[in-house]
Structure prediction request, 278 residues.
Amino acid sequence: MCKIKRMSRRAIAILMTLSFASLATDDVEPLTTGKFSYPNNARNAISLSFDDARNSQVDVAIPILNKHNVKGTFYVNPQFAMERLEGWKKAVKHGHELGNHTSSHLCTGNFEWLRSKGQGLEQVDLAWLRKDIESTTAFLQKQFNITPLSFAYPCGNTFVGRGKQVKSYVPLIAEMFKTGRTWLDETGNNPTYTDFSQLAGNRMDGMTFEEIRDMLELLREDNKWIILAGHDVGKKGMYTVDKDALEALIVYLKDPKNGFWLATVNEVASHIEEYRTK
Prediction:
């Protein structure tokens, strides 16, 4: 009880969700068994990812990561990346991973800001979306001489169309990339089971270090791979990772006694892929 009193409301809510999930699956035979091995005998893998290629990622996040010799995964929208092009080129040289986040950043039209542009994912098809994704890959190839292996679904939405015409674009991402990361999930990724094309992503925007740490403790069972996702980096906000929380988090994750292997999305996926082929 004392431990729960020290936890944040957000952490308690997550604990309740996970507890109900456990009750619902008590009678289900486990899909996998046995321990999974990460480098340095780590208990869990963790990746720090950031969406959109926002200016604050170059100006604030990357200097913090470089200071601690940590590599992040940044999912790029070309329109934003062009505003700090030289900074992104330096990030690539430092070993940070750049992934694809589409050119249009199209999400569901339920977002009012998107409806003002005239269309959402409900109004496009797979052929249109493929071209949009390919244009971002072409941008990354031209500007950075890299072909991205990682993708993040804008707003975590994985569909096109409406009603009976709805189609998943997960198969398209599985064809085009090694990994696809979603958003606002409530679990980590079981390395022996997870679908690389639908990797769970957990929010770190708007949270204190203590709240993130509490959340990690609730997500890390069964050697899970946890992918944290954020947007701007600066003063804590709805779509902003607090820079002090980020630095404290990195220090915590790098401490061997806490049992995390901190690596990019592609690095962890490659490690898991190698394990699965043995």
Q: What stands out?
A: Residues 152 and 181 are 5 Å apart (CA to CA).
